[in-house]
Design goal:
The complex is a heterodimer of chains A (327) and B (239). By secondary structure, chain A is α/β, with parallel strands linked by helices. Chain A is built from eleven helices and 14 strands. Chain A has a six-stranded mixed beta sheet with strand order 6-7-8-3-9-10, with helices on both faces. A four-stranded antiparallel beta sheet of chain A has the order 2-1-4-5. A four-stranded antiparallel beta sheet of chain A has the order 12-13-11-14, with helices on one face. The radius of gyration of chain A is 25 Å and the shape is elongated. With 239 residues, chain B is mainly alpha-helical. Chain B contains twelve helices and no strands. In chain B, helix 2 crosses helix 6 and helix 4 packs antiparallel against helix 9. The radius of gyration of chain B is 18 Å and the shape is globular. The chains are: A alpha/beta (327), B mainly alpha (239). At the A-B interface, helix 2 and helix 3 of A face helix 1 and helix 5 of B.
Chain lengths: 327, 239
């Protein structure tokens, strides 16, 4: 991996607000062309991290580099390389969409000779043609978000930083914005934050999970769903009594099976059945042992089904793990 | 420079797309016109002194209020709605933001002031008018408005609440204005200081037709100092 391929680099980034450490010693890098999702519970430090990358906040320690330029030392130069959409798309409500985009084009020094063509391409791409003459304040949230994206794209930046681009949108709008981000990801590097898990699975090549201001995972969505938490096995057993005691007895029994980690009791498939949710340890597949155990104790297995751990599980494990459950 | 123009252009459009600009200009023309002509006919002399010289109730006092009104939202509202974050993540320097906004606020008040030239022309038609004090009076009022707009912008960078920005700017402006008359109640050693820091004292000199570099320098220093503090306050948001 050559140096020029790294577009964003955070080295030991930290941000302190008084006594509160919002971000602690965060290091990661994003290569050119990647679409990276920053995931974390609310208040994990996602927005603070993005604000440091965009030059809005000065890091308390460490440094952020965009295209090899230190953001705090060469803020203006680094900022020409990125387009940023803060959370909730803060825009000038009293301006018309076209006036607003022209204003941004002025500040972004978009060449006046081909500005009209450029504005047109971007408005078409973001689906803004029919609202150009409307006041920004009168737009729906979905359109606001598109204006925010258009604003970030005007100067054709290498890097797009999007803070919760789909928050507050309805399901149709979410799908549209996601589609747009995916299209943009084909020729731009995108760093987006979210706390919506399917979103990163749908759009990102790589996921960074931040919890309590620390980086707890940095991997592809596939790797994270296979991750250390192991596979989940759903088991349904026939049990005419289906009592609490019976369930507790079986739970204990399954916990002793080799390769099984956690066992949780759950809904069965109706009367006379008991359901369990087992988490395998590491990369084990304990299904053979489970079957052996069932035979040995004369249990009737109705269903045994291995699932991949969902990103939700990985996320919960990583963010609730290390004393992260303060909320 | 182009960034300063872009910011100033946007703010000026904002003034003229909303009723703000019209209210400010019309209110200033009506009230200052009434103030001028009501005393003009009592005095029976073609003299614009009542228009330029500061008094507890004069066009310049009106400018103290209007400058706080036109500047209160300039930064405070951007801070509140989050557009300031958007703006500072674009390649633009903090001083360009402040100076652009200053130019917009100042241009609005300056255009209201220049429209009152119609009054000067009217008065000149009524009798022999000495144009010297008129020119120095206008220069004085322009410098005076500039420093008050700068104070207003400084106050607007301190808060995300427009009303707070207005009240603080008004208190500072009115304080610097009225301290000229309060000096008589102050201990003897404080009186010259109070006189010197008062915006009215320097305006009074210029209204009499005296263009003294000390008065000009006072206004320029006040303007530059306030704008400098406004830039510093904007820089604080990165901390």
């Amino acid at each position: 991996m050559s140096e020029s391929q790294v577009l964003v680099e955070a080295q030991g980034l930290a941000k302190r607000f008084g006594d509160f450490e919002a971000v602690k010693d965060l290091s990661f890098s994003v290569k050119r062309g990647e679409v990276v999702g920053v995931l974390g519970p609310n208040g994990a430090g996602k927005t603070t991290t993005m604000r440091m990358l965009t030059g809005y906040l000065e890091p308390s320690a460490g440094k952020a580099c965009i295209g090899g330029l230190d953001v705090s030392k060469e803020r203006l130069k680094a900022q020409t390389m990125l387009g940023y959409l803060p959370e909730n798309a803060p825009l000038y409500d009293e301006m018309m969409v076209i006036d607003y985009l022209n204003f941004v084009a002025d500040i972004r020094k978009v060449d006046p000779s081909n500005r009209q063509a450029k504005l047109r391409t971007i408005c078409e791409r973001c689906g803004l043609m029919e609202v150009l003459g409307k006041d920004v304040g009168h737009l729906s949230k979905g359109y606001r978000q598109r204006v925010g994206l258009a604003q970030a794209l005007l100067h054709d930046p290498d890097l797009l930083i999007l803070d919760e681009p789909t928050s507050g949108l309805d399901p149709n709008q979410i799908i549209e914005i996601r589609k747009l981000i995916k299209e943009l990801g084909q020729d731009k590097t995108v760093l987006l934050s979210t706390h919506i898990l399917p979103e990163v699975q749908a759009t990102c090549d790589r996921i960074l999970i931040i919890s309590n201001g620390k980086l707890v995972a940095d991997d592809t969505p596939e790797a994270l769903t296979q991750g250390e938490s192991g596979a989940v096995i759903q088991v349904v057993v026939k049990s005419p009594a289906a009592s609490q005691e019976e369930a507790a007895r079986l739970q204990e029994l399954f916990e002793r099976v080799k390769g099984v980690g956690r066992v949780e009791s759950q809904e069965g498939e109706g009367n006379g059945t008991l359901g369990f949710r087992l988490t395998a340890q590491g990369n084990c597949d304990p299904r053979a042992e489970l079957f052996g155990c069932a035979v040995e104790h004369e249990l009737v297995l109705l269903n045994m089904n291995k699932e991949r751990a969902s990103l939700e599980d990985t996320f919960r494990n990583l963010t609730l793990g290390e004393g992260g459950s303060h909320e | 420079m182009s960034n300063i123009c872009a910011i100033a252009k946007r703010e000026l459009r904002g003034y003229f797309d909303s009723p703000v600009a019209y209210i400010v200009v019309i209110a200033f023309l009506l009230i200052s016109g009434w103030m001028l002509f009501s005393s003009l006919f009592i005095m029976g002399r073609a003299d614009l002194r009542p228009f330029f010289s500061p008094s507890p109730f004069s066009p310049s006092m009106l400018l103290v209020i209007l400058s706080a009104a036109v500047t209160m939202k300039l930064v405070a509202e951007e801070r509140k709605t989050g557009t300031l974050e958007m703006l500072t993540t674009m390649p633009i320097k903090d001083y360009e933001v402040v100076f652009g906004k200053f130019l917009a606020g100042f241009s609005l008040l300056a255009s209201a002031l220049l429209l009152t030239a119609a009054y000067a022309i009217t008065v000149a038609g009524l009798g022999e008018l000495d144009w010297g004090p008129v020119i120095s009076g206008y220069l004085g009022l322009l410098l005076f408005s500039g420093s008050l707009v700068a104070i207003g912008i400084m106050c607007s960078t301190w808060t995300s609440n427009q009303i707070v920005a207005f009240i603080v700017a008004f208190i500072l402006g009115a304080g610097l204005y009225y301290i000229y008359w309060l000096q008589f109640f102050l201990p003897e050693f404080l009186a010259p200081i109070a006189e010197y820091i008062s915006v009215s004292f320097h305006l009074d000199n210029m209204a009499r037709g005296v263009i003294d570099s000390r008065d000009v320098l006072y206004y320029l220093t006040l303007t530059a100092g306030s704008l400098f503090l406004a830039v510093r306050s904007l820089e604080q948001q990165h901390a």
